[in-house]
Amino acid sequence: IDLRYEAQNLEHFQVNFRNVKAVKFPTPLRPFVTREVLVETYEESVPVSSYQQAGIPMDLKRKIARLGINMLLKMIFVDNFVHADLHPGNILVQGADGLSSSQEAQLQQADICDTLVVAVPSSLCPLRLVLLDAGIVAELQAPDLRNFRAVFMAVVMGQLHVSSLLSSVFKLLMTHKVKLESNFASIVFAIMVLEGLGRSLDPKLDILEAARPFLLTGPVCPP
């Protein structure tokens, strides 16, 4: 593993999302970046899994879910540079309220070796997602991206559940031992994982409706 590549990926994502206030990436602190060591800024945040709990306002859950889906769709259809490890542990939330006092206490305090560590709340900032661990990314060749866009458009027109359809496709590929290009597979898995996370926050999340602006207007990120 060469952590210099992860630092480059973080900087690439920062450029891609420089005009998107709702998504943030840690900044690699050069010259403290080597093959074995990556030093980056600390982003005071709350794990997205904390907002899957009962008692969190539904409106806040919907906003977080929508931010995540728009972020992924931009990566795929606008930037063609996709974070391929988008499990909940790599997604943090800044600028959100809604946690109860007991939940905040659990997140902000840890008793380690008789030393009380207390997280200091970050300064006010807009609601946004912070993405970690950008060591794995995926990019599609131009023909593959066109084909993927066409398939996604067909799914949108057919009003199918994206994750269910992709899961069925993977089962068929495994059954018939058909090899799938690794970057394509990584992007498909990213969609399945993030849509699942989004639906755990908002069961009514409609990734197809969110995808329409990206598919119909080309490389323009919706607000």
Give the helix/strand layout.
Layout: H1 3-16, E1 23-24, E2 28-33, E3 38-40, E4 46-47, H2 58-79, E5 82-83, E6 91-94, H3 101-108, E7 109-112, E8 115-118, E9 128-131, E10 137-138, H4 142-158, H5 162-175, H6 182-201, H7 207-217
Parallel strand pairs: 1-9
Antiparallel strand pairs: 2-3, 4-6, 5-10, 6-9, 7-8
Domain ABC1 atypical kinase-like: 1-158
Pfam families: ABC1
Family: Belongs to the protein kinase superfamily. ADCK protein kinase family.
Short overview:
It is built from 7 helices and 10 strands. α2 packs antiparallel against α6, α4 crosses α7 and α5 packs antiparallel against α6. InterPro entries: ABC1_dom, ADCK_kinase, Kinase-like_dom_sf.
Structure overview:
- The chain has 223 residues and is α+β, with helices and mostly antiparallel strands.
- The chain has one domain (3-217).
- It has helices at residues 3-16, 58-79, 101-108, 142-158, 162-175, 182-201, 207-217, and strands at 23-24, 28-33, 38-40, 46-47, 82-83, 91-94, 109-112, 115-118, 128-131, 137-138.
- The relative contact order is 0.17.
- Mean pLDDT is 83; it is low at 100-123 and 219-223.
Task: Please supply descriptive tags for the structure shown above.
223 residues; alpha+beta; 4-stranded mixed sheet; 15% strand; globular; ADCK_kinase
